[in-house]
Amino acid sequence: MPVVKHKKIDVLFSAEAIAKRNAELALDVAARGYSNLLVVSILKGSFIFAADLIRAMHVAGVEPDVEFITVSSYGAGTESGAVRLLRDIDSDVKGRDVLIIDDILESGKTLKFTRDLMLERGASRVALAVLLDKSMRRKTDLEADFVGFPCPDQFVVGYGMDVGHAFRQLPFVGVVSGDA
Ligand code: IMP
Ligand code: MG
């Protein structure tokens, strides 16, 4: 079992499993035939997933532009509250197909806020790609178009996801299971 920062981490999704799934997701994205595609990666949690998925998309023949948006949904705790836009994209999305990438779809508030923002600005189609889906936590009617894996109802870290900005560097997704 990996030990990081003196904590034992249970691996849920290995680096190999994620890489294999990313290649499949990229083929699914390619099959949709998006035109003038703009990828919008939601910071900070999706930065590694987005980096890997867009490279898999390149292999699958997709040629997106790439932007980043920073939205914050968590207040002090770990329950998703009001969503705020902290840093916007620079591109005009009017008439474009947009693929929003996030790490986890939980209540759906983060992705609903971001999707609605792109639609209000005149995007033609807005699709959603997430690495993990905690469907048992949903509080909106939102579903993602592309899902890496269904996720158990546990707080996960790694592959971009953090607790207090730690553990983002892990190449796998895991759960902190206790002191090492
Ligand atoms: P939602 O707005 O409730 O769908 O929350 C989604 C956001 O919450 C994601 O972008 C994540 O950043 C964060 N999040 C939800 N569950 C976890 C977790 O288990 N680990 C780390 N971040 C999480
Ligand atoms: Mg996030």
What does this molecule look like?
With 180 residues, the chain is of the alpha/beta class. Helix content is 23%, strand content 35%. It is built from three helices and nine strands. The strands form two sheets. Strands 5-4-3-6-7-8 form a six-stranded mixed sheet, with helices on both faces. It has a three-stranded antiparallel sheet with strand order 1-2-9. Helix 2 (47-59) links the parallel strand 3 (38-43) and strand 4. Helix 1 crosses helix 2 (47-59). The site of inosinic acid has 15 residues, from strand 6 and helix 3.
Please give the number of β-strands.
9
Radius of gyration: 16 Å
Poorly predicted runs = none
Major β-sheet, in short? 6 strands, mixed
Encode the helix/strand succession as letters. Answer: EEHEHEEEHEEE
Name every ligand kind in the structure. Answer: inosinic acid, magnesium ion
Mean pLDDT level: 95
What labels describe this entry?
globular, alpha/beta, three-stranded antiparallel beta sheet, single chain, binds magnesium ion, 3 helices, six-stranded mixed beta sheet, binds inosinic acid, 180 residues
Please outline the helices and strands.
Blueprint: E1 3-4, E2 7-13, H1 15-31, E3 38-43, H2 47-59, E4 65-74, E5 80-87, E6 97-105, H3 109-120, E7 125-133, E8 146-150, E9 173-179
Parallel strand pairs: 3-4, 3-6, 6-7, 7-8
Antiparallel strand pairs: 1-2, 2-9, 4-5
Inosinic acid binds next to strand 6 and helix 3.
